[in-house]
Automatic annotation (TrEMBL):
<feature type="transmembrane region" description="Helical">
    <location>
        <begin position="167"/>
        <end position="184"/>
    </location>
</feature>
<keyword id="KW-0812">Transmembrane</keyword>
<feature type="transmembrane region" description="Helical">
    <location>
        <begin position="356"/>
        <end position="377"/>
    </location>
</feature>
<keyword id="KW-0472">Membrane</keyword>
<feature type="transmembrane region" description="Helical">
    <location>
        <begin position="315"/>
        <end position="336"/>
    </location>
</feature>
<feature type="transmembrane region" description="Helical">
    <location>
        <begin position="204"/>
        <end position="224"/>
    </location>
</feature>
<feature type="transmembrane region" description="Helical">
    <location>
        <begin position="144"/>
        <end position="162"/>
    </location>
</feature>
<feature type="transmembrane region" description="Helical">
    <location>
        <begin position="463"/>
        <end position="486"/>
    </location>
</feature>
<dbReference type="InterPro" id="IPR002823">
    <property type="entry name" value="DUF112_TM"/>
</dbReference>
<dbReference type="Pfam" id="PF01970">
    <property type="entry name" value="TctA"/>
</dbReference>
<keyword id="KW-1133">Transmembrane helix</keyword>
<feature type="domain" description="DUF112">
    <location>
        <begin position="20"/>
        <end position="437"/>
    </location>
</feature>
<feature type="transmembrane region" description="Helical">
    <location>
        <begin position="389"/>
        <end position="407"/>
    </location>
</feature>
<feature type="transmembrane region" description="Helical">
    <location>
        <begin position="20"/>
        <end position="49"/>
    </location>
</feature>
<feature type="transmembrane region" description="Helical">
    <location>
        <begin position="109"/>
        <end position="132"/>
    </location>
</feature>
<protein>
    <submittedName>
        <fullName>Integral membrane protein</fullName>
    </submittedName>
</protein>
């Protein structure tokens, strides 16, 4: 009851005209920024930090939260329509959303994503209100072996369900892990695969890799085949979800937060892991498995709901522990410190108006985003009617601008082109793109957690399985790997 009364007080703060205005500014900026590949919410919040020096802290953080949620909404728009993720959390949306858009169901895919974000955000924020202390306690108890096991699960799960074969999936993952090795060794400081270039010492930014593999690779692939296939306009489709689509999406909308919220609260890759696992889960549970890869709406609804709930989970560890688990949370933590406020266990006691006003504004932001994005779904879908030469020329331009904005180095554009050519070759030889992106995102973290676990156990491999949590995860991994073999050995009993 204390949480509910505090939340009601927070709504009193968030519903003031000035704070409502800043919430609206945040969601509009976040949606617009999320659409641009490479310029994600973390960069937006960082750029706006100097601008908010004169603002009241509560107003500033309400705006930052709107940007965070709006960026996730906007990131799925270009991911679905143009196969160009604006945010790494929107990578999975391209797997099923883009085939839906190419078949004239872009508006339905956007509607499923928007409602998924709304459902996931609402459920995740409710869990934030009631379960923040419990989830924070669990996050504290998870150690290096557990983090490594979670990341291995993500690797195995995504490579087992994507592509025409597991070998191609693991080959793609190996490419991503190799790209993730570029830069300085985090433990020893030695350079790896930098070829003597100081600019590569910091590694290759995951945004450049995602934009290169998806946007540049897709644009080059379409350019190679443009003359063979007539450039026919793609129908926009009806701007609502039918009864059959609602029956297929309501369960993924509800399952997404169960996966996304816990993962958002622990430092294991932000929204990337839960969206991948949600996709795998929906493919396993769906009665329309044959549609996956061709435009299954469950593959959009579940991951997008998980991504939004993960954003709420991220705020749990940031507010209660002062532990940032994503780039956006890290920038927001810097903003807290800028105002002389230290997130942690005492934050709820020292700054109740700010914290509960911020949490209440999340509910308001989700409603604003749903009202903004649902009517715009058919409008965004009309982007597909632009002739493909002009459309993909625009994609190449914005991809280059986004990649250059990441580091401001001309070398980033060269790397973008090289990775784009790699994406073209992967499409040519049937290698799925997503495992490579997973490898880049999670590879460095997995290596760091592996080495920490081995250091703790003095090099003994038993240190990787010395907790009940890690053992449970490895059992799940074994089941995923052995399930196809079990189906072959006992075809009449295992279905």
């Amino acid at each position: 009851m204390d949480s509910l009364s505090s939340l009601l007080d927070g709504f009193g703060t968030a519903l003031s005209p000035v704070n409502l205005l800043w919430a609206a500014v945040g969601v509009l900026l976040g949606t617009a920024i999320g659409v641009l590949p490479g310029i994600g919410p973390a960069m937006a919040v960082a750029l706006l930090l100097p601008v908010t020096y004169g603002l009241d802290p509560t107003a500033a953080f309400i705006m930052f939260a709107g940007i965070y949620y709006g960026g996730m909404f906007g990131g799925s728009t270009t991911s679905i329509l143009l196969n160009t993720p604006g945010e790494t959390a929107a990578v999975v949306a391209a797997m099923e959303g883009h085939p839906m858009a190419r078949s004239g169901r872009g508006a339905q895919a956007l509607a499923a994503a928007a409602i998924g974000h709304f459902a996931g955000g609402m459920i995740g924020t409710c869990l934030l209100v009631f379960l923040a202390p419990t989830v924070a306690d669990l996050a504290v108890d998870i150690g290096a072996p557990d983090y490594f096991a979670i990341m291995v699960l993500a690797f195995i799960a995504v490579t087992s369900v994507l592509g025409s074969s597991r070998i191609r999936g693991f080959a793609s993952l190996l490419i991503g892990l190799t790209i993730g090795l570029v830069g300085l060794d985090q433990m020893t400081g030695q350079q790896r695969l930098t070829f003597g270039s100081l600019q590569l010492a910091d590694g290759i930014d995951v945004v450049i890799v995602a934009v290169g593999l998806f946007a540049i690779g897709e644009a080059l692939w379409v350019a190679l085949h443009l003359r063979r296939r007539p450039d026919e306009p793609i129908p926009v489709g009806r701007p609502w979800l039918g009864k059959a689509e609602l029956r297929r999406t309501w369960k993924p909308w509800l399952r997404g937060p169960a996966i996304g919220f816990p993962f958002g609260a622990i430092p294991a890759g932000g929204a990337e892991i839960p969206t991948f696992l949600s996709y795998v889960t929906e493919k396993r549970l769906s009665k329309h498995r044959d549609e996956f890869g061709k435009g299954a709406i469950e593959g959009v609804a579940g991951p997008e709901s998980a991504a939004s709930a993960s954003a709420a989970g991220t705020l749990v560890s940031m507010l209660t522990l002062g532990l940032p688990t994503t780039a956006v949370a890290a920038v927001m933590l810097a903003a807290f410190q800028q105002y002389g406020i230290q997130p942690g266990p005492l934050l709820f006691e020292r700054e109740p108006d700010l914290v509960w006003g911020l949490i209440a504004s999340l509910f308001i932001a989700m409603v604003m985003l749903l009202v903004l994005n649902l009517p715009l779904a058919p409008v965004w879908a009309k982007l597909l009617r632009i002739p493909r030469p002009y459309l993909y020329a625009g994609i190449l331009f914005f991809a280059a601008v986004g990649a250059y904005a990441v580091g401001g180095e001309p070398l980033d554009l060269v790397i973008l082109l090289i990775i784009g050519l790699l994406g073209l070759l992967m499409r040519r030889y049937g290698l799925p793109v997503l495992p490579a992106v997973i490898g880049v995102i999670l590879g460095p973290g997995a290596e760091q957690q592996l080495r920490r676990a081995l250091q703790i156990s003095d090099g003994s491999m038993s240190g990787l399985v010395d907790t009940p949590f890690s053992v449970t995860v490895y059992v799940v991994i074994a089941l995923i790997l052995c399930w196809p073999l079990a189906k072959r050995l006992v075809p009449g009993r295992v279905r």
